[in-house]
Design goal:
This protein is mainly beta. The protein has 1 helix and 24 strands. Strands 1, 2, 3, 4, 5, 6, 7, 8, 9 and 10 form a 10-stranded antiparallel beta sheet that branches. A hairpin with a 6-residue loop joins strand 15 and strand 16.
């Protein structure tokens, strides 16, 4: 949820006594959510006074006035959830829930979680973790659904920019192809939310021509810029690897000598070694702008 101009209509979402979670406007604390309770509303403003559950000020619970856009309800409990390597989770740490990714599963089980903001791993028990969820327009969504919804909304806004001949990349929801992007060229628009594209590397079954396909607007994006150059990648960094004619989203699971890396693909649960030249930084197309995955703010 982007931080924007206060909207007094948000007041109707929360009441005094509600249990909430509060994110921070501090860029260095992105991806954090602190449990709190609303104890008052500031008249003629878009702010509430909250009392934190786990943060203290001189041995008493910390109280603070916060803008409505920094509040969200408590997510629904998911007590029977099973965690796996590569899952996006929230882990309870220093009085709040911190967004991270599971990088190792130990016996017990117990888990190592990597926090992007700190570039460090910490050890957690299952009781200290929960699946990461986003609160979007009154609905709880997992990260992948948020990504698809954002792509769909921003894509519709730039519909006219995908003219005939535009170089694009196309994704698919088919089993085994999640997280992959394939280069294509727009042939023409089909109605309000579809395009006919011709792939650059995927061919027809008879191998006589390159494959043509009609795709929904939420599965298409411009070609990423080629100007981004990375000298080396770090452990747990999100990347895209060129494999099987497309760019596949993954995470660096091991840094190997000689500018080589092992990449873990969550969708297929495979780990494959690549040369540096076969990788590129993962970028997201958000509201008409390319944003590096590590730079995206998730409030």
């Amino acid at each position: 949820m982007a931080l924007g101009k206060p909207n007094l209509a948000h007041h109707s979402c929360f009441n005094i006594g509600d249990e909430v979670e509060v994110t921070s406007a501090d860029h260095s604390l992105r991806g954090t959510l602190f449990p709190a309770k609303i104890i008052a509303r500031l008249c003629k403003t878009n702010k509430f006074v909250v009392e934190y559950k786990s943060l203290e000020a001189t041995d008493v619970p910390l109280r603070e006035s916060v803008d409505t856009v920094l509040l969200r309800p408590l997510p629904p409990p998911e007590n029977d959830h099973t965690f796996h390597f590569g899952d996006e989770v929230d882990a309870f740490f220093s009085g709040g829930w911190w967004e991270g990714i599971i990088t190792q599963v130990d016996e017990g089980p117990a888990y190592w979680v990597y926090f992007r903001f700190a570039k460090q791993e910490f050890h957690f028990q299952p009781s200290e973790m929960r699946p990461h969820r986003e609160w979007i327009n009154g609905t709880w969504l997992p990260p992948r659904e948020v990504s698809l919804k954002t792509e769909a909304n921003s894509s519709k806004a730039r519909m006219n920019k995908f003219s005939k001949g535009t170089a694009v990349e196309v994704s698919s929801d088919e089993d085994g192809f999640q997280g992959a992007w394939f280069a294509a060229t727009v042939i023409n628009a089909r109605g309000q939310d579809k395009y006919l594209v011709k792939y650059k590397s995927l061919r027809t079954e008879d191998d006589m021509d390159y494959l043509r396909e009609e795709v929904d607007i939420q599965h298409i994006r411009p070609r990423p810029p080629n100007a981004v150059m990375i000298d080396s990648y770090d452990l747990n960094e999100e990347v895209e690897a060129f494999c099987n004619d497309g760019w596949w989203e993954g995470v660096i699971s091991k840094v190997v000598k000689g500018s080589r890396y092992k990449v873990y693909f969550k969708g297929t649960k495979d780990e494959v070694e690549f040369q540096h030249s076969d990788l590129r930084p993962r970028q997201d197309w958000i509201e008409g702008t390319w944003v590096r995955a590590s730079q995206a703010l998730k409030f």
